[in-house]
Amino acid sequence: PESHDYCKFAAPYTTSINFEYNCVDIRGNSGSYDGTSIGSSQYGLDSRCVSVIDSSGDQDAFCFQMECTGYDSTTSSYSGVDITVDSGVVVSCSKSDELTTMSVSGVSGLGSIQCPDINAICGSSTSPFACYYGTYDDALGKCVCAPGYSGADCNTEDMSLVAEASLADAVEYNVTEHSKVCINGITGYWNSFNGVYTLEGTNEGVEAFYNPSINRGTYLFYQRYSSDWSLSSTLGSSSRFGSCDKSIGPDNDPDIEDCGYWSFYDEDSDSFKEMQTVQATYDTDTCEGNTDVDTDEWESGSNRIWIKTWIQLAFVAT
Fold first, then answer.
1. What is this structure's pTM?
2. What is the pLDDT of residues 79-91, one digit of tens each?
3. Phi, psi of 108 (to 5 degrees)
4. Which of 89, 115, 118, 116 is nearest to 104 (CA)?
């Protein structure tokens, strides 16, 4: 999500300082905080998060140095961005390349990257990477720091600038209460998750559902930070059997009936596979339940239902 640099979420490490995979946090270059790298990936002031496909075909995300190009002072915008993926290897993305995949050769372990949203990366100022925790203001000719930071590049923590504040009220979702949800159309080895899930409290302000008979008890719930509906053995857990992306629209209602494609974990490919046949329906009196295994679509011989933590990947915002 935009609020988290479009990069992956991580629980704080067991050190005295929390580390959350922010690409500008140079502590990430230390193996004690991250320890994973590919090509010339690195953390720093001009680094941003990039979605990649590695040489094995798996999706991941890494921090790479970037340079915004083609600034237009009339529109206060950039026409492209250069991404340094390795020594001497630069991938140039233009506005027409946004969110498209670019093949990369000559970099060990890297197959391709996805070009980012140029406006999200570069913003509108002439110095998009001048400030760690703040925004460069061309009119003032300096960084305007976020609360809690000061200094020329906004990299000095200064809590004296932060006034005491009360906790904000919980997000009010515009949700019509439902008594149950029917999940239908899951095929292959995962078809046991078809069925009726009845109302069982809430998760992050959105109604949650439960079926005690499916996989010895399975929850269906919405997660605000990953913007998806999930099927899991534990309410609110990031470890899930399958999920469906669903952003909260202008009406502030994460309606499960409007979900896109569902994805389920496949052990053989060590990745989540998209399933376009799944439908979710509120409060229906008919629900087909389990469907027959579709061996043409899913090879069920060695597949097993695994719980695997799904780390959300995406692009960086300024």
1. 0.49
2. 999 999 999 899 9
3. -55, 125
4. 89
